[in-house]
Structure formats: C-alpha cells, structure tokens
Amino acid sequence: MAWGKGSSNSERIHHGHLCAPLRQYRTCVRILERLFWLSRGWDTRPKLKTVLGVDLAPQRPRYARERAEVANHILEPDWVGKRALARVGHDGPHFVGYGGEVEGPRELYDAIVAEARCTTAIIDGVLVADWRDESELELGPDGNAFVRKASARQIFAAFDLLEVDGESLLEIPLLERKRHLEGLLIPSVNVRLTPFVTRGLRSWRETLVAQGFHRVVLKNWNSAYAPGRTTDDWLVVEKISGAR
C-alpha cells in the first residue's frame, strides 16, 4: 500500500472539512458586519457610479449606403432624434449622449422610471421629438368615417440595456441584453421598445421604409457593447442587397 499517497489524500479531505466551517464563520462575520452598518444607517456597498459612471457614452454605429444581408445580424429601424442613455435611479444627469449630458423632458424621464421594473438601470435609446402614431379610421357622431390626425409628441425609443441594479451587461451578447430589456421595460405611449427581426431583413427593411424610416440598423447579435466606440458590429444603412 502506498502510505504516502494515502496520507496525502487523507490530508486533503481533512483540510476540506476544516475549511468549510471556517468559510461559514467568515460569511457569518461579513453578514453581521453588514447588519451592524445598516443599523447605523450606513451603506458600505460601492456606489453604482463606480460600475458604470456618468462618463459612459453610447456606442457609435458606422454608416454605409448599401450593405449585403448577412447572417447572425438583427435589423431594427434607425430612429431620427437625439441619441441618449437614460440613467434610471442614478445620481447625476438623467440623459447622457455622445458628448455628455443631454437635455430631455423631466416628464419623459419620469415615464421611463415608472415603466422600468428595477431600482437602477442604464438604457440606450433615442429621444424622438416629433413622433406621430399611425392615423386611425374612426366613426363620427353622424356615422361617417373619418381619419383622426395623430398629434406629435416626444417619446423615448429604447433598444439596449447596459446595466440593471448595479450589474453591468456590457459583455453580454446583444440578443441577451435585448431579452433583459424586454423583461425590464414596460412599453407605453411615451416609452417604446424598438422592434427588430433576425430573419427576412430585406423584406422588413421595405416595411420600415413604408412606415417612414429612411434608414435601418444592422447589428451583430453576438456583439458586446462598446461604450463611446465606433465598431463594425452596428451599421446604419439605406439599402440592403442580396445575402452574401
């Protein structure tokens, strides 16, 4: 019998049993310390601004007149407006753009906060100043049909999620971030979730053009978020040619 080898295994097991109570003891100490500081009204957790600070800027797309339809990409409309990161529950500016703080209506920010099911979040989107819903056919008091002209209003069109409740999502693939966004933000009259498709990009581009969007955005669905940088993962185009 190889006593030396057996002794080594026994020591490893023995140390494992000793370490488990020690870890539990240290965990209990940390919990008790945390409860003590909270009882004094002190919060020892790191501030969220150290995770994703106010200097965080939106990712920039590249621009092209035409691009072939490619695999592993989504397509979404290119909103016309002011690009902004909505900072829900954070100190400092409510909206941050490419060059820093962006002005936006307090009422719109409050609407975003009201529709966000979280304590804090950083949501990427566009402040659209003159949005009009599609006109609807209605019946008047005299029984005659008429088209009611929709009034213009400002909306926030959200399409990405960078942080939620102190957790950074920058390294998570785009499609996963969008799933988190859909579970967090409740669409409303003034807060919109940007629609997207993963197949039939050329045909849906024609649909978006018919709805008044002059350009569309192609995005690599496996891409991480690159704050303030211009990458090939996001491409704004006017026309999509055949698949390559």
Cα gyration radius (Å): 25 Å
> What's the mean pLDDT score?
78
List the secondary-structure elements in sequence, H or E.
Answer: HEEEEEHEEEEEHEHEE
Count of the domains: 2
CATH class of the largest domain: Alpha Beta
| Model regions low in confidence, pLDDT < 50 over at least 5 residues | 1-27, 43-50
- Give the distance, in angstroms, between the N- and C-terminal Cα atoms: 66 Å
Question: What is the beta-strand fraction?
Answer: 25-35%
Structural class: alpha+beta
The helix content is 25-40%
CATH superfamily name of the largest domain?
DNA ligase/mRNA capping enzyme
State the total count of DSSP E strands.
13
User: What is the CATH architecture term of the largest domain?
Assistant: 2-Layer Sandwich
Label this structure with key terms:
single chain; 244 residues; alpha+beta; D-amino Acid Aminotransferase, Chain A, domain 1; 2 domains; 7-stranded mixed beta sheet; 4-stranded mixed beta sheet; 4 helices; 28% helix; 32% strand; disordered N terminus
Can you describe this structure?
With 244 residues, this protein is α+β, with helices and mostly antiparallel strands. The chain folds into two domains: 45 residues; 194 residues, D-amino Acid Aminotransferase, Chain A, domain 1. It is 28% helix and 32% strand. The chain has four helices and 13 strands. Strands 3, 4, 5, 6, 9, 10 and 11 form a seven-stranded mixed sheet that branches. A four-stranded mixed sheet has the order 1-13-12-2, with helices on one face. Strand 7 and strand 8 form a beta hairpin. The N terminus is likely disordered.
